[in-house]
Specification:
- Chain A is built from five helices and no strands.
- By secondary structure, chain A is mainly alpha-helical.
- Chain A is 60% helix and 0% strand.
- Chain B is an all-alpha fold.
- Chain B is globular.
- The two termini of chain B are 27 Å apart.
- In chain C, helix 2 packs antiparallel against helix 3.
- Chain C starts with 9 loop residues before the first helix and ends in a 10-residue tail after the last helix.
- Helix content of chain C is 35%, strand content 21%.
- A five-stranded mixed sheet of chain C has the order 3-2-1-5-8, with no helix packed on it. In chain C, strands 4-10-9-6-7 form a five-stranded mixed sheet.
- Classes of the chains: A mainly alpha, B mainly alpha, C alpha+beta.
- At the B-C interface, helix 3, helix 7, helix 8, helix 9 and helix 10 of B face helix 2, helix 3, strand 7 and strand 9 of C.
């Protein structure tokens, strides 16, 4: 994820206030009904909706067929929806609406650095080709995998150093 | 609004380069700019497409007469395997979800680049090395993989498919699989985190919505393929018995795993092109897209249902639950029908003009309808029992895939070419390409339905005179050659546009979405300025009356919808 | 969501009426024509089990054709009626903008609901047909064990008296080495394909299995195919309703000589079948083919 460094676009953490009606407040915050939160609602809803949909499909599938393979794959699809979905849900109820979540946002609301976008880098090329050699090692023997592995190691090191230096931005 | 009639002006020199930096091969290799990567993807996948097309022509040549000996059976098996693999894994998918998505998505949502530029570049190089390994199978002893693009176990096991070719097929697909997963992550993140202010989720263009849903489908489907391939490799070389009866494995497990990837894959190939068509139709009808939220809903529903129908490819195995998969498959017809009516509603009472992209979009509607309806027929298990694995199915999926990936895809190519090169393609040549393509395609495909019903199985190398399949096969082959020729016309069009450029201008079509509000080709980080975003078509709003902030009011005579 | 539409003018109402008429006529056509429809390119089925599948195919194909024609008509109507350059016989000026309709809730609901109804009807019919096609009777008259192998078929008839009839491809089941090395497609002569002999009018249970890879047991004129899977035996019934000679093929790609993996199906009248059994009955033990 690119770093959102500017306050105008940042994910501001709202101190979670303790309240007696915490369940109600929790739902309000979750779906953006309370003021000042509820950015990111649809994004979370897409993943959670995916999870919910496949949970229903999984239930129907399992109780009509009792077939293991498909059920396991559907179960993992539910998990795939839940994992990012619950993360986004967690943040959506602690996060102000971003300019891109507001219908009336002006372009100026989003000024400031959006993120860091490295302009060019030779390492992805090296890494891609090295992994290609590793894959060829599966076919023609481990020595090719060794060649690819060394290349991949150099590339990962290279890209890490590049990031630490700030890269070619 | 710029019209085609006022535009032509021959350029004296090259279109301006807005981006400083290294040029030539080094830039192509190292640039993490999404436009450069997108173009690399686009042209690489088109090269694979032409290669697979040549294989298709060889297949059609082999089938043009009974008892033909154009190639040996072994060659024929390799050809249809690699034709399918190249088209499915290396062309139809990456052409849209990596090529067009990289080029267009960041601009459409108002982002400066993709969220992870270096990951993006890595996924291109994984894709290219995977593709080269896959094609390289032809150059090892024993030849390329020859078990069909679905690689059913135990035929794909080490005993019945020895040699390096099948292993290269597996290795290449693992690489392209990872490339697709990385692109999927990149797309989701870009659309979720990098939209321009005011670009709410219900204002991103339908193409971006479809790419988002495609990316989620990729995340669901491709890991299953990659794990299945690893299991297959382990079966072949590490002595495991996932798919062999001898060691207690279950061969049908491969089919379950493969189609759990394979059916979402079909929609990974289709949804982006639905998106492209949904971009083209409103622009050339001068209307907003009809039923925006309905289309979003339909896309999500198609994606969801498509992951629950994998075993409709396995009806004839006798070990799957027929009513569940038949019902789910039928249900997909509902959101797909919804899309059709939304497309027709978009054209309804518009001011239609028929530039090449619009021709391709309408061609897509006409052809995809045929494929869609035969798909509904195939969803009935008792019918599938007698057309499964025959040319009926071949005709069905070619109509679906050529309708989407070729008609939709090249419609998108004609539509966005001016944006990413700054030049126009020639209209007459584009129209010729379209007419030859669609005539050739219908000639090729419609006889195959009849052949299938008469009992011609797919993947047979030849047939005899006694079966009376000759005439239909000749028609089909001639249609195939016409498709081949139509792409020669397209190449000529590209060459002319390269040698004698016509300046496109920023907005040659009167586009609706953000990419038409920037220059052609777009500058580094895409925008000098972004117009205010008040609806899903900010460029239209900019060129017409701008609606007040905070509302979704649309256009001069539009209606208010919240 | 406001519809954003004016109240229907007489002309618009006439369009709707026309659409309604088209739908009603199409529906009537489907209902009336069910008994007497064309084959749409396929074969009238030989077996009793595929009767419903056949009529399902006929009606669904007709329905698809009607719906397809309707949607094509809508597409081409848009293309010809709403061309900008020829609108109402005269070109529209370049800057003019059509009405910017974005939603029309009534129509959206209508075109969502109607496919659901059609699909639900189809689903009901499909379940009936597939049950007829896949149901396995407990007491078949005859059982035949069919084994697919690279590249041929073996038909094994266990007889009531404990003996067997085994039918194998005659001659070489696979092409010669010379044919492989020259690379020419080696069409096995038709005479060598094995023949599955079935009695007319009696229920036959087929137990289908594969010896090596996945094969497809397909008889076009029976309107039926089923995979021969290694390790899993598939069972299904045939009750042939007329005598004749039919061809069968392998549909699932199974390796180099997939093309040659063909067989014949000979449906004989019961008396002729009995004679065939008597002529071929040989007391050989059932040995698994390796």
């Amino acid at each position: 994820m690119s770093e959102n460094t500017d306050s105008g676009r940042s994910d501001e953490v709202e101190a979670a206030g303790q309240s007696e009606h915490w369940v109600r407040d929790w739902f309000r915050r979750s779906w953006g009904t309370s003021k000042g939160t509820g950015g990111f609602r649809f994004e979370a809803a897409i993943y959670l909706g995916t999870a919910a949909f496949f949970a229903v499909v999984l239930a129907i599938y399992w109780f009509t067929s009792y077939e293991g393979g498909g059920a396991v794959m559907l179960l993992f699809t539910v998990c795939l929806g839940l994992l990012p979905g619950s993360y986004m849900f967690f943040w959506s109820r602690r996060m102000k609406k971003r300019p891109e979540d507001r219908l009336d946002a002006e372009v100026d609301d989003g000024v400031g650095p959006v993120g860091s976008f490295p302009d060019q880098s030779v390492w992805p090329f090296v890494l891609g080709i090295s992994i290609g050699f590793c894959a060829l090692g599966l076919v023609f023997g481990p020595w090719l995998g060794l060649v690819g592995g060394i290349g991949a190691f150099c590339a990962v090191a290279g890209v890490t150093m590049e990031s630490r230096r700030g890269g070619n931005i | 609004m710029t019209l085609l009639d006022d535009r032509p002006a021959i350029l004296v020199d090259e279109p301006e380069h807005h981006h400083e930096g290294p040029s030539g091969l080094y830039q192509w290799i190292t640039s993490t700019d999404h436009k450069v990567i997108g173009k690399s993807y686009l042209y690489t996948s088109i090269v694979f497409f032409l290669l697979a097309g040549l294989m298709a022509l060889m297949i059609r040549t082999q089938l043009i007469m009974p008892n033909n000996t154009f190639g040996s059976q072994q060659t024929y098996d390799e050809l249809f395997t690699m034709h399918g693999s190249l088209m499915m894994y290396l062309f139809a998918g990456p052409f849209a979800f990596a090529g067009f998505a990289n080029l267009i998505i960041p601009i459409q949502v108002g982002a400066p680049d993709m969220a992870f530029p270096r990951l993006n570049l890595l996924s291109y190089w994984l894709y290219l090395s995977g593709g080269l390994i896959l094609v390289g199978g032809f150059f090892v002893s024993g030849g390329a993989a020859d078990f069909g693009w679905v690689a059913y176990a135990p035929l794909s096991g080490i005993i019945r498919s020895p040699g390096a070719g099948p292993d290269m097929w597996i290795a290449g697909l693992i690489l392209t699989g990872f490339s697709a997963i990385f692109t999927g992550i990149n797309l989701v993140t870009t659309i979720f985190y990098l939209r321009a202010p005011g670009m709410t989720m219900f204002r991103i263009p339908i193409f971006s919505w479809n790419m988002l849903v495609t990316a989620i489908l990729i995340l669901i489907a491709f890991p299953v393929l990659t794990s299945a391939l690893v299991m297959l490799y382990a079966d072949r070389h590490l002595g495991t018995h996932f798919f062999t009866v001898v060691g207690g494995g279950v061969p049908v497990l491969w089919q379950n795993l493969f189609w759990f990837f394979g059916h979402p894959e079909v929609y990974i190939l289709a949804l982006p092109y639905f998106g492209i068509v949904t971009e083209i139709l409103p622009v050339f009808s001068r209307k907003p897209v009809f039923s925006y939220k309905g289309l979003v809903f339909a896309t999500l529903l198609i994606a969801g249902l498509s992951t629950g129908v994998w075993a409709h490819h396995m009806f004839t195995t006798g070990v799957v639950l027929l009513p569940f998969f038949a019902g789910m498959s039928y249900l997909i017809a509902v959101p797909t029908g919804l899309k059709f009516f939304a497309w027709i509603g978009t054209m309804w009472r518009g001011h239609l003009t028929f530039e090449t992209p619009m021709l391709f979009a309408i061609g897509f509607l006409v052809v995809f309808l045929l494929g869609g309806l035969s798909g509904v027929i195939l969803a009935a298990p008792p019918i599938d029992f007698f057309v499964h694995d025959t040319y009926y199915v071949v005709a069905h999926f070619h109509e679906v895939l050529i309708g989407t990936a070729v008609l939709g895809g090249f419609g998108g190519f004609y539509y966005w070419y001016p944006k990413f090169t700054g030049r126009m393609l020639r209209e007459p040549l584009g129209q010729t390409h379209f007419v030859m393509l669609i005539v050739g395609f219908l000639l090729q495909t419609m006889p195959q339905y009849v052949l299938g019903l008469e009992g011609m199985p797919r993947r047979i190398a030849t047939y005899t005179v006694a079966e009376h399949w000759t005439t239909l096969n000749v028609i089909s082959s001639c249609g195939g050659y016409l498709i081949g020729l139509s792409f020669a016309v397209w190449l000529v069009n590209l060459w002319i546009s390269w040698r004698h450029p016509i300046l496109a201008g920023d907005d040659p079509w009167g586009g609706h979405t953000l990419e038409w509000a920037t220059t052609s080709p777009p500058p580094h980080h895409n925008f000098y300025s972004i117009p205010p975003i008040r609806s899903e078509r900010p460029t239209w709003d900019m060129n017409h009356e701008e609606p007040p902030p905070g509302s979704d009011v649309q256009g001069p005579t539009g209606i208010t919808v919240r | 969501m406001p519809a954003g539409q004016d109240s229907p003018t007489p002309r618009r109402r006439s369009y709707r009426r026309a659409a309604l008429v088209v739908i009603v006529v199409a529906g009537a056509l489907v209902l009336a024509g069910c008994n007497n429809l064309p084959t749409f390119g396929t074969f009238p089925p030989v077996t009793k089990q595929e009767g419903d599948a056949y009529s399902l195919y006929q009606s669904i194909t007709l329905l698809a054709m009607v719906i397809g024609a309707f949607i094509w008509a809508l597409i081409f109507w848009c293309v010809f009626r709403y061309r900008r350059n020829r609108r109402n016989g005269q070109p529209v000026e370049a800057g003019a903008v059509p009405k910017q309709t974005r939603y029309n809730l009534k129509w959206e609901v209508a075109y969502t609901i109607s496919p659901i109804i059609i699909v639900a009807g189809l689903f009901g019919y499909t379940v009936v047909a597939e049950n007829q096609s896949t149901i396995v009777h407990k007491h078949p008259a005859i059982t035949v064990d069919v084994t697919g192998f690279q590249w041929g078929w073996r038909f094994d008839y266990p007889l009531p008296n404990g003996e067997h009839i085994t039918v194998l491809p005659k001659g070489e089941p696979t092409p010669t080495l010379a044919q492989v090395t020259t690379g020419l497609p080696a069409l096995i002569p038709v005479e060598t394909y094995p023949t599955l002999v079935l009695p007319e009018g009696e229920m036959v249970q087929i137990n289908l299995v594969s010896n090596d890879v996945v094969h497809g047991f397909y008889i076009p004129e029976f309107l039926f195919s089923r995979y021969a899977l290694p390790g899993i035996t598939n069972e299904f019934d045939f009750t042939a309703t007329r005598a004749g000679l039919f061809t069968g093929r392998c549909t699932q790609f199974c390796g180099l000589y997939h093309t040659e993996m063909q067989f014949f199906v000979q449906v004989l009248p019961p008396s002729a079948y009995t004679a065939w059994v008597a002529a071929h009955e040989v007391p050989i033990p059932k040995v698994p083919l390796t």
